[in-house]
Amino acid sequence: MLMLVGITLGxxxxxxxxxxxxxxxxxxxxxxxxxxxxxxxxxxxxxYWGALFGGAITSILFNIPGEPWSxxxxxxxxxxxxxxxxxEALTGAFTSSxxxxxxxxxxxxxxxxxxxxxxxxxGPPEFFSVYLLTFxxxxxxxxxxxxxxxxxxxxxxxxxxxxxxxxTGQLRLTFGFTQLLNGFHFxxxxxxxxxxxxxxLSMEEGLSFSGKTAKINTRIVLETWAKLPRYWMTSVRxxxxxxxxxxxxxxxxxxxxxxxxxARKMSRDGAKFGSGQLEGVxxxxxxxxxxxxxxxxxMLTLGIPGSPTAAVLLGGLLIWGLQPGPLLxxxxxxxxxxxxxxxxLGNIAGLIVVLTMVPFFAAILRIPxxxxxxIIVVICSIGAYTVHNSMFDLWLMALFGVVGxxxxxxDYPLAPMxxxxxxxxxxxxxxxxxxxxSQGSLSIMWSNWLVGGxxxxxxxxxxxxxxxxxxxxxxxxxxxxxxx
Amino acid sequence: MEHRNESxxxxxxxVTVDLxxxxxxxAFGAVVVYESYRLGSSWSSDGPESxxxxxxxxxxxxxxxxxxxGQSMLRLRSDMKVFVERGPLKQVMIVLIPTIAYVxxxxxIGIYVSATVFIGLFMRLIGRYSWLRSVAVGLAVSVTSFMLxxxxxxxxxxxxxxxxxxxx
Lengths: 484, 168
Description:
Chain A is mostly helical. Chain A has 20 helices and two strands. Chain B has two domains: 71 residues; 80 residues, no CATH class. In chain B, 69% of the residues lie in helices and 7% in strands. At the A-B interface, helix 7, helix 8, helix 17, helix 18 and helix 19 of A face helix 1, strand 3, helix 2, helix 3 and helix 4 of B.
């Protein structure tokens, strides 16, 4: 029962742009203090699963990602909805999320201790090289102008640096504005860039709202299920990417992008990605859920949260007097196995809930744009305000809306900016720690096979577009020579 | 913005906006570099200073801004793609200006009244719905969000004199 309530709440949170998994759990945390820890964590983790599922709905139907990790789902999900294949896309997304989560839970159950021991060897250079790999893969797999990708990404990093320096406690880049003390919260940026920016874009296209209707019935579900086994290779790859990114604290967002990028490079139909390929929905969704689930693994076994939402859950555990760590498995067996059982059941319940509730969400979409647009603006503003309870964030939201509109029209990708904003502090502190260890020498990035391998791969990806341009130019020159 | 001062139908070309945005990006990067340099971007006795990481970030922003600027300059003569036409631009402004007005209102009189007025007026003036429906939807959204946030989740949102009168 708690599970169903949790999942429904989670889906609603996931559907609303601005109310995210981390936010939603933080808001609902006080409500669960009256419950026993086991039922409380079951409810909260169900909200988490629900939010993971729900993010996909708005990405596919509105092209507004409800959650940062569903940004990659919009790339192919929205074109599919435009072609009238929304039902297929939704079924594909839900089913593959379910598969991703299930695989991650199974892995969680069996190989948790071994993986935890491996991750313990990670030092700052390893962490930084993983971040580097994530960011370089944007440049390597992005189809736009690499300089625009870098510009957008680096602006995200710069915004993440605003506020109090976590290492020295010094204020930086605030220019004397006290409002900037808190820095830029990524939720405000996401709400503005995607929520408001998208409304401005759809206004420009005329009043016809770009939301697509979804007809979902048993026939479409079964037909899509029949198609899905074809993409098993994509699924397996995405599960691997997802589990890996979840365990090392990469989180669901980079996992979904990496998985999408990898699927596009590896797929036979890679060139058609972005025009409405079911495979392009399967890949990010599977990875996002696998990562979202496995993010709980380091949190429970090591006390290191793998994602912002896991961090909020960790805070909740501490309030209940449960100290996460290897001891938790020995001392609080009921709790741990209750949580693991809820992962299995919660995902099955989640799949059923979202599949049956899609007609309800489809009904929301038939509301005309002139009603829904101001309501979305109001919800966005509430979401932006509740992040810090600050009026300043509302102005930022409006500003980010304009930036999002202009950037989208100019093909500056928004996702790297958001990701850099989220991971900026973590990336910076691991970089600085690594530099401290090596006394400022970059050679630490190649100090052992693990970190060296990841860094080299990252740099290869970074220079891939330039390499391609260079090769194209040389080929053109050779063809000219040959023609003479 | 300079979108408005051209009178012919296309309000701005992609290349022009690209150039301006690249300049803004470059300026942004320059500000970051300057501030990081001021904070100290090198090593002190206890390790990297505060500006160490942002300094290089700012540098990269400047470089990529400059590259985009250069690329756009090369296309300045040839690329005539239209960024936005005057009609659609007006549509965008129809949403943008009320949104900004709404944010201002939230600051002055609280979120609930502003939300009601904003939704109501938007539906009435742009959607051309009847006053009754517009006001009803506006009120419904405000009351629902009030119940949801103030009463159930106990999250205070910005309030103004009217909520004070009602005792909240």
